[in-house]
Amino acid sequence: xxxxxxxxxxxxxxxxxxxxxxxxxxxxxxxxxxxxxxxxxxxxxxxxxxxxxxxxxxxxxxxxxxxxxxxxxxxxxxxxxxxxxxxxxxxxxxxxxxxxxxxxxxxxxxxxxxxxxxxxxxxxxxxxxxxxxxxxxxxxxxxxxxxxxxxxxxxxxxxxxxxxxxxxxxxxxxx
Length: 175
Known about the structure:
This protein is an alpha+beta fold.
């Protein structure tokens, strides 16, 4: 068989296959395109959400701060031994609700970390809390760090936003 006969037969088979194919109905092709678009959208949204959680956990600035009255921050300690406590008043900014506050106290002997109970603060709100502190175990207070927990997506557990924390030193005794 020469080359021209081979090429002619090849194209004849190609033409006969092309003529015998049946097309996909417009309804089936539309349904396939809709499913493809939905699937692609789900993949992109999940990827975007994962990127947001990984790279910008606390991209929202809470603007949380300790309330100042008469130029003095409203945070102090009192008591002694096992009966000590730390009292503070914090306020939230206008951007996002704070689910709760985590307090870390660096003492002269050890570090004390606690989730402050019932410490949620709504947008623009404030909270005054008293937290038990054992001077016998942890020693004299050297630094207090208040870190907000934010619920970025409804229904998910709040994440700790270390970038938004407040660090305080030289805490005075309550009067």
